[in-house]
Design a protein that fits this description.
This is Two component regulator three Y domain-containing protein. The protein is an alpha+beta fold. The protein contains twelve helices and 64 strands. It has a four-stranded antiparallel sheet. The protein has a four-stranded antiparallel sheet with strand order 2-3-4-5, with no helix packed on it. A hairpin with a 5-residue loop joins strand 18 and strand 19.
Length: about 950
């Protein structure tokens, strides 16, 4: 095995392998016989319930976009890898189909033939050509074959053959009933029952040399074989070679039986021959008649009757069956070894030894030999490893360790949980065994394995381990990796050191150890690492890390003898390929196909040899044949299945066929129809639905969308503008198609159209003009209003000022009045004071006068009496107060509004004494005070009041004082 080979041997074998691959052709590489180890191809079955049509299928063609069309009992089926469509074609059974370079799909059916052609919206519609035939040529039952040759299309029925040049139909009538027709090497051939084989020449029929041999042998197909040689298959008489002479094609009778009925045959692109039978499924043989594949119900087909075989552009075989359809990935480098081959359980371990392959699953051990798989009794349960130890087949099992001899198992140790045996360097007969609970010592003695003892000092589970000299590295999935050292006789572990994140690993989990090219490689949750013994530390191994992204978690590694390293990582499988320049290249794309099949529990990859790699699967194993893994050169195709315009109404604007919307006339849509739904497909059938798409709408999306399996994209409420929708596809091998586009334009709404903007401009101009006019008028009005307001304000100011002036004048007047009032009050006070003074003075003078008069009367001295009389006269004169009255009257008039003057003028009859009397009454003096002022008695005052009342004309009811106060 590769793990024990030297570098020189690997290089020599690698060079030999390169020479071998250069010498043999790809077709020769495919010439494996069923005696070799090969699994079953991937088969996809399509039931009638899935494609919603009849169970019987008769013909299969493919168009330039790789869509598949199937002639079905209920019409023509179309399959684009995602969805099925059915075209009813006048409700007739369709027997034949032909995709032509003119884009039409020609079909033959019961009593009819014609073509499907797309309209400007890409919608297929059926046109019957047979309906244009005259009634005498219309009497045929079914058109079983259609061929295209020299710009003519030939519709082959059992009555006659019809030639169509694109405009006219011509009937080629043999005069007898025809059988099935064929096309080979640009010739149209037909068989006539009882006469043999004929060819069409110049719109007539010409017998083929030696063709009468087949007058009683019904031909199923004629194939090109070698140069100038045909291979003719018959329904029930076998296969013949024809080159002007007829000879039987030799078949390997170990598999072929005469009772097999050949319904159809086809020459595959790699030169092999596929035979579809009536009662035994599909056979694929090589040019020597040796069996390569036999597929039947045990292989995964759901029907044994194969009516037609078609090899598509991706080299998959499509089988039109009596009950459904099937697609077979016959040339895939991957095949399945599973329960269809009687292998039960998930795959965990394998070993190739000579002509036998041992397969270990969770259900036990199986032997694969001579194309058959058989269970080894006594091995029920989980198998962990199968090893070739010095010619012995050793089984590491949940129940212990066993030796396998033939179909028997012999127990070596019943210690439960045997993981693996590792040979101790420099001790050729000693092995360390890893188990659930630690390590044990096993010895190979006399050709037999013997369990010696358990080795104390280490009790961890030891599934993954490798020797470096006599040091053993044991990886533990949850703790790290242990460095184990033993004593000299391996009876005890003397050192057990754990290495994990403290010694350079990114963390403590998912650490493994492998020996590749005689070098230890450690893997962890972060890539590849190597051990530096001097520093006792682990460092990244950039030679491999550079090939992977950061965070790589390797689940298993194994190298072949050519230096290629196969690996399983958490998210991918692949091979680190050793190239001619000794550089390494990571190849993973081919392995994407089987991601969903591999077993992620104790994931394992087993190199049987450089041409056969087994990968543990959820159900059995996946067998990988590197020599079959040819470079994929053809990019996948992508097309629009349907484009729907949505809005006020929903309408399909493209239905997936001949493009009617491309060209200079970019489709335009009203704003009310500004939503779109795009559906697309990529008919890469080997991807088995694992197609991803990216989309982008220019003028809307900034960049391509993330890859997604979603096959439709909807845009709603788009603004007006020009858009280009793009979509591209990526198949399971990470190949990306060229993008396809659909350009369209959304018109603006009427309120955002050019006419609308023109109208808006006019309206804006008018509105601006009117606005300016209005503003001008408003300005004028505002100016006038401002002027008026200004005038009003000024008037208000004037009024306010006038009011203020009036208020000021009033205040001044009030002040003046107050001042006058004060002066009047003062005058009044003065008058009153003066009056009171006069009263006092007069009283005093009167008293003095009276005293003097009394004294003068009593005085005897005449001289003194005279003087006293003179003094009395002087007093009388003073009491008259003439001057004082004048001053008093003047002041009184000032205070009382010229009372005295007005009184005199109105009542001139009043005497001076009565005037004074009236003034004193106005001053509100009492009778006594008035008497003192006038020097009269109180009685005199009463008489005076009476006189005044009389002169004033007052009646008894009138109050003199009130009258004088109001006067």
């Amino acid at each position: 095995m590769a793990k024990s080979e030297t570098n020189n041997k690997r290089i020599i074998e690698g060079l030999l392998g390169v020479v071998f691959l250069m010498v043999i052709s790809s077709s020769a590489l495919a010439q494996k016989t069923i005696s070799d180890f090969q699994g079953l191809p991937f088969i996809s079955n399509y039931e009638a319930s899935e494609y919603q049509a009849g169970i019987q299928n008769w013909d299969i063609v493919q168009d330039d976009l790789d869509r598949i069309y199937v002639a079905n009992n209920l019409g023509l089926l179309e399959f684009d890898g995602k969805a099925w469509r059915r075209y009813g074609l006048n409700n007739t059974k369709v027997r034949s189909a032909l995709w032509h370079k003119d884009g039409r799909i020609y079909v033959g059916s019961q009593a009819d033939f014609g073509f499907l052609e797309s309209d400007s919206f890409g919608k297929l519609s059926y046109v019957s050509l047979a309906d244009s035939l005259p009634s005498e040529l219309r009497n045929f039952d079914e058109a079983w074959k259609i061929f295209a040759q020299n710009d003519h299309v030939y519709f082959c029925t059992f009555e006659r053959i019809y030639s169509y040049d694109g405009e006219r139909l011509k009937a080629l009538d043999f005069g007898k009933r025809l059988d099935i027709s064929f096309q080979v090497n640009q010739q149209i051939l037909t068989q006539v029952a009882g006469e043999g084989l004929f060819r069409i020449v110049n719109d007539g029929f010409e017998p083929v040399l030696g063709g009468e041999f087949f007058k009683d042998k019904r031909i199923s197909n004629i194939l090109p074989f070698n140069r100038d040689e045909w291979l003719i298959t018959t329904f029930s008489h076998g296969i013949f070679r024809y080159n002007g002479k007829i000879s039987e094609f030799e078949m390997d009778r170990s598999f072929w039986k005469n009772e097999y009925l050949i319904n159809y045959s086809v020459r595959l692109k790699n030169g092999n021959i596929a035979l579809g039978t009536q009662n035994s499924g599909l056979f694929v043989i090589n040019e020597k008649g040796e069996l390569l594949h036999h597929l039947d119900k045990n292989s995964g087909l759901m029907d044994l009757t194969i009516n037609y075989i078609f090899e598509d552009s991706q080299k998959s075989l499509w089988l039109a069956m009596n009950n459904g359809l099937a697609r077979v990935d016959l040339l895939s480098p991957f095949t399945l070894v599973d329960d269809r081959m009687d292998l039960a359980g998930s795959g965990y371990a394998a070993l190739k030894k000579g002509e036998v392959v041992y397969l270990g699953t969770n259900n036990g051990l199986f032997i694969w030999q001579n194309g058959k798989i058989e269970f080894v009794s006594g091995t029920e349960g989980q198998v962990y490893g199968i090893q070739d130890i010095e010619g012995l087949v050793v089984l590491n099992h949940h129940n212990g360790t066993f030796i396998i001899q033939g179909n028997r198992s012999i127990s070596v140790s019943e210690k439960q949980g045997s993981w693996i045996l590792k040979k101790i360097p420099n001790h050729p007969n000693l092995y360390i065994q890893g188990s659930y609970t630690g390590l044990s010592l096993v010895e190979l003695k006399n050709g037999q394995l013997q369990f010696i003892r358990e080795i104390p000092g280490f009790d961890e589970s030891s599934r993954v381990m490798e020797f470096d000299g006599e040091t053993l590295w044991v990886a533990h999935g949850y703790k790290g990796v242990f460095r184990i050292r033993f004593n000299s006789d391996f009876s005890e572990v003397i050192e057990s050191k754990l290495y994990n994140s403290a010694q350079g690993f990114p963390n403590d989990v998912l650490i493994n150890v492998y020996q590749v090219a005689n070098r230890l490689i450690f893997t962890a949750n972060g890539g590849f690492y190597t051990y530096d013994a001097e520093k006792d530390f682990f460092f990244p191994y950039d030679e491999f890390n550079d090939l992977f992204r950061y965070g790589t978690v390797i689940a298993d590694l194994e190298a072949d003898e050519l230096g290629n390293i196969y690996f399983i990582e958490q998210s991918q499988l692949g091979v680190i390929k050793l190239m001619n320049n000794n550089q390494r290249e990571l190849q993973t794309k081919s392995f994407n196909k089987i991601k969903r099949f591999w077993n992620d529990d104790l994931a394992n990859v087993i190199v049987l040899d450089h041409q056969e790699i087994l990968i543990g699967g959820k159900q059995g194993f996946v067998l990988y044949s590197p020599q079959m893994d040819l470079v994929q050169t053809d990019l996948p195709k992508v097309f629009f299945r349907e484009i729907t315009n949505q809005g006020i109404q929903s309408q399909v604007i493209f239905s997936g066929h001949k493009w009617g919307g491309a060209g200079d006339d970019q489709p335009k849509f009203d704003f009310a129809q500004n939503s779109f739904l795009f559906e697309f497909a990529s008919p890469h059938y080997e991807s088995d639905g694992q197609i991803e798409y990216q989309v982008m709408l220019e003028n809307y999306d900034e960049d391509w969308s993330p890859w997604s399996s979603e096959y439709r994209k909807e845009y709603t409420n788009l603004r007006e503008g020009e858009y280009v929708f793009k979509v591209r596809a990526k198949n399971v091998f990470d190949q990306v198609s060229e993008p396809i586009t659909y350009a369209f334009k959304v018109r603006p709404p009427i309120y955002r159209s050019l006419a609308a903007y023109t109208l808006y401009t006019i309206l804006v101009g008018v509105l601006l003009f009117m606005g300016f006019r209005l503003l001008d008028k408003r300005h004028q009005k505002q100016t006038q209003a401002l002027e008026l307001e200004k005038n009003k304000a000024l008037k208000r100011k004037d009024d306010e000022m006038e009011t203020l002036a009036q208020q000021s004048a009033a205040e001044i007047m009030s002040l003046k009045n107050a001042k006058l009032q004060a002066e009047i009050d003062f005058k009044n006070q003065e008058l009153t004071s003066s009056a009171m003074h006069l009263i006092q003075k007069n009283k005093l003078l009167q008293t003095i006068k009276n005293s003097l008069s009394n004294l003068a009367t009593d005085e005897k001295n005449k001289m003194l009496s005279q003087q006293l009389n003179r003094l009395i006269k002087s007093i009388d004169k003073d009491l008259e107060g003439g001057e004082e009255w004048s001053q008093f009257a003047e002041n009184f008039d000032q205070v009382h509004g010229n009372f005295i003057t007005r009184l005199k003028e109105r009542f001139p009859d009043l005497t001076p004494q009565e005037i004074k009397f009236s003034a004193y009454i106005r001053m509100n003096l009492n009778t006594k005070e008035i008497a003192n002022l006038l020097g009269i008695s109180v009685r005199g005052v009463e008489i005076g009041r009476y006189r005044v009342r009389k002169k004033l004309g007052l009646s008894r009811q009138d109050n003199l004082s009130d009258f004088l106060l109001r006067f």
